[in-house]
Design brief:
This protein is an alpha/beta fold and 351 residues long. It has two domains: 4-118, no CATH class; 124-340, Rossmann fold (3-Layer(aba) Sandwich), CATH 3.40.50. The chain has helices at 17-32, 60-76, 124-133, 139-145, 168-175, 187-200, 219-223, 247-259, 266-276, 320-323, 337-340, and strands at 4-11, 36-40, 43-47, 52-57, 95-100, 103-107, 117-118, 149-150, 158-161, 179-182, 212-213, 233-236, 280-286, 301-304, 308-314, 330-331. The structure holds S-adenosylmethionine. S-adenosylmethionine binds at residues 49, 162-163, 165-169, 183-186, 189, 218, 237-239, 260, 263, 269.
Length: 351
């Protein structure tokens, strides 16, 4: 069911210059996208492909009013529907993003005392994961990149991460040498990811090309854009119910379940993706779940990653616009020893 939802967004006074710059970039990207339905100075309507998001930029007074409502909500355990600024209503499907000194955090007041969700790629635990995985050891990198050809020597494999979420796998794929464009259709998640990527730009911790986040929405928006070449590979990791994991993962999952729920359009999406990708589509599935399958679309192979599986499908986009220029194909992954010598760890991405 499509919902009309509200995202309230507030920038605290005197945030540092880099945060303010990120805010400006996000607003610019948001309104430059194909998903923009309407806008006024403090209010945008974004049609993300599933839900429609009304994005309200709150001034200090409106934010103070909203805070009062949030407190009332916590006490009453049900959501009062009194108005903010006379027009805006708070409902259980809504979310609040606050920009403070450390960047954007996502607050879902209905979730009681749960700490706001803040994304920071420079965090040690996150960087360790990138280092531990190396360039090719992560199963997701192997599923997406192994055996895929680059068009010209020195070019990178073009990957669309169709379901960016909190951006971890986009980062892993970029670190593994792909040129990644990431897509996210739920506005609150899109905003905190956009901010985290903005802040990671130029960091000495990431000496590789960071994923580029497309404006809010799904790959269909890119499909109509002449400026973007079709991807070699589309990576697809939709929400499925009940993924277990560590406390941190569970917190993120609870927020995701509340905001996103289950992605129910997976088969429809698979069809679009297979016809759009030039070489491959990779779908992440729970260990026990059967592969996604349509009458004329079957997986070609899979990578078993322990707690989950990566199912691969052959892309069918003939890419006719550039096909004649395909003078030479070379595999980036000829050096199999890179990972055949290494023992496989159990894939620890429980999310
Ligand atoms: C399971 S999470 C992805 C997690 C991600 N792989 C990571 O590493 O953080 C799924 C996300 O994809 C988004 N999503 C699902 N289907 C989508 C689609 N067709 N287009 C854009 N975003 C989508 C959901 O809103 C959700 O945020």
């Amino acid at each position: 069911m499509r919902l009309q939802r509200h995202l309230y967004w507030h920038v605290l006074p005197n945030v540092p210059e880099d945060v303010q710059l990120s805010v400006d970039q996000i607003r610019h990207k948001m309104v430059a996208g194909d998903s923009l339905i309407s806008m006024s100075a403090r209010h945008y309507t974004i049609g993300s492909g599933v839900d429609t998001w009304e994005v309200y930029l709150l001034d200090d007074a409106a934010y103070a009013q909203l805070q009062k409502q949030i407190e009332a909500t916590k006490k009453a355990a049900s959501i009062p529907s009194n108005d903010i600024e006379g027009a805006l209503r708070w409902s259980e499907h809504d979310a609040l993003v606050v920009f403070a000194d450390d960047g954007a955090s996502l607050v879902i007041p209905q979730m009681g005392n749960m700490k706001p969700l803040h994304l920071d790629f420079t965090q040690v635990s996150y960087r360790q994961r990138l280092l531990r995985g190396g360039r090719v050891k992560e199963p997701v990198a192997r599923a997406v990149l192994h055996g895929v050809k680059v068009r010209y020597p020195l070019e990178q494999v073009r990957v669309f991460d169709a379901t960016a979420g909190l951006g971890r796998e986009s980062m892993i794929l970029a670190h593994a040498g792909a040129q990644v464009v990431s897509f996210e259709r739920q506005m609150p998640i899109w905003v905190i990811l956009a901010d985290a990527l903005n802040r990671a730009q130029g960091s000495r911790f990431f000496p590789f090309k960071l994923p580029k986040l497309f404006s809010p929405g799904d790959i269909r928006f890119a499909q109509v854009k002449d400026a973007i070449d079709p991807p070699d590979v589309i990576y697809y990791d939709p929400m499925f119910p009940e993924r277990g994991g560590s406390a941190q993962v569970k917190k993120e999952m609870a927020i995701f379940q509340r905001l996103v729920g289950e992605d129910s359009d997976t088969l429809e999406f698979l069809k679009i993706a297979v016809n759009y990708a030039v070489q491959r589509v990779v779908v992440k599935r729970p260990k026990e779940a059967p592969p996604l399958q349509l009458e004329d679309i079957e997986r070609s192979h899979f990578i078993d990653a322990g707690v989950c599986r990566f199912d691969c499908y052959v892309g069918r986009n003939p890419d006719t616009a550039v096909g004649s220029q395909r003078v030479r194909w070379e595999s980036e992954w000829d050096d199999e020893e890179d990972y055949e010598d290494e023992e496989d760890d159990e894939y620890d991405d429980e999310y």
